[in-house]
Design brief:
- The structure is a homodimer.
- By secondary structure, chain A is an alpha+beta fold.
- The first copy, chain A, has 2 domains: 107 residues, SRF-like (3-Layer(aba) Sandwich); 71 residues, no CATH class.
- Helices cover 43% and strands 14% of the residues of chain A.
- Chain A contains 5 helices and 5 strands.
- In chain A, the strands form 2 sheets. Chain A has a 3-stranded antiparallel sheet, with helices on one face. In chain A, strands 1-2 form a two-stranded antiparallel ribbon.
- The relative contact order of chain A is 0.09.
- Chains A and B meet through helix 1, strand 1, helix 2, helix 3 and helix 5 of A and helix 1, strand 1, helix 2, helix 3 and helix 4 of B.
- Chain A binds a DNA duplex through helix 1.
Chain lengths: 214, 214
DNA sequence: TTCTATACATAACC
DNA sequence: GGTTATGTATAGAA
């Protein structure tokens, strides 16, 4: 008989995988799984779903049902135009035309998707634009490109801004303290905590502990 | 002893669920699962992911990392100026500037949505995507050199991590997914380290209660 | 929602 | 890409 060569799956912590290679493998496998899940959600419930994934390296993968463009388009229209609240679609933000590369990809995706669906309607998966297995992931991850740093920065800046504003509102409107949670090993709860705002800083606290500062 | 009350999970065919109620339940469960998967993919591999879900009922759910809202700003800035090399790599990041009509629409939509959905995450949102709020931080960061940006980045990333980690803990420990709900008619999913947004703001929820809106 | 019993996804290895 | 042993997501029922 065959020798047991594997110890089987092991539990992992959900945090960035530092090891480049396994990170890439995981990305690939999970991306596939994500698309599959999205696909099943569509088929089972009739919902429309669009998933856009892009690796730090910049490659874009997408899944869409009926297809990405339509979905995005729909969001676009429901925004700029006005639609009753009835059958609503969305009210997300206004999207710009997709960049050429992305556009092409989505286009391609749409085709592939359509074909597969027509064929068996099991799942319309995606496939990166053209190149098969290409080194895309490693490049920018370690040196974390400026653009990514900036994205994070802005993301955080926005978060902070909103947190601040919200904190103010919450404290003004009702006197309920804003609490995000407790500490490790500390009982969880949303009462008894308080939000402290000081010129520029925002601290989430619970009991005597602090777990977040902005 | 306890009677076996369930036959356990059964294999199902991936085809539309006709029974309305179970379809609804499945939608809810799987949507949560999908967001969680997306979240994990982001955390584990550092990829950027956006998920848009349109339920048959018309509700819109979205998940995105990094924060879409901020990417809008980011885009706006790089767009008006020069499409900087920092250019956007993801389709998700290509958003058009929010137009006034859009904002108004979103506002209106939010109201309608509120009426239709008497559940809980209804109320008011604030901070129309973009600016309009506490600019101090914004401006402070605006003309900062890259080196500085990186410093800010690190400090903020650390803070963000704490919050995200905490959210994760809350979710894992209490099994209640920490939800970053959206308004503007868009339900935002949030779990495991992702900040979900969309033209407006988001809501931190815990179990059935809301504990923070930004 | 919550609870099982299972189906399915996937971490390690090849 | 495939295999195997497990960790997880969930269908069905309450």
């Amino acid at each position: 008989m065959k020798k047991k060569t594997t110890k089987g799956r092991k539990k992992i912590e959900i945090k960035k995988i530092e090891e480049t290679n396994s990170r890439q493998v995981t990305f690939s496998k999970r991306r596939t799984g994500l698309f599959k899940k999205a696909s099943e959600l569509c088929v089972l419930t009739g919902a429309q779903v669009a998933v856009l994934v892009n690796s730090p390296g910049g490659r874009v993968f997408a899944f869409g049902h009926p297809n990405v463009d339509n979905l995005v388009d729909r969001y676009l229209k429901s925004n700029s135009g006005q639609n009753s609240g009835a059958g609503v679609t969305s009210a997300v933000t206004h999207y710009c035309p997709l960049s050429v590369p992305t556009k092409e990809f989505n286009q391609h995706y749409a085709e592939v998707s359509r074909e597969l669906e027509a064929e068996k309607r099991r799942r319309e998966m995606m496939i990166p634009a053209g190149n098969g297995g290409v080194p895309w992931f490693d490049e920018a991850v370690d040196g974390l490109p400026v653009e990514e740093l900036e994205q994070y920065l802005w993301s955080l800046v926005e978060l902070k801004k909103k947190v601040m504003t919200r904190a103010d509102e919450l404290m003004m409107i009702n006197k309920s303290p804003v609490v995000l949670g407790g500490f490790n090993g500390v009982e969880m709860g949303f009462s008894g905590g308080q939000t402290v705002v000081n010129g520029g800083g925002f601290v989430f606290q619970y009991g005597g502990g602090e777990f977040g500062r902005f």
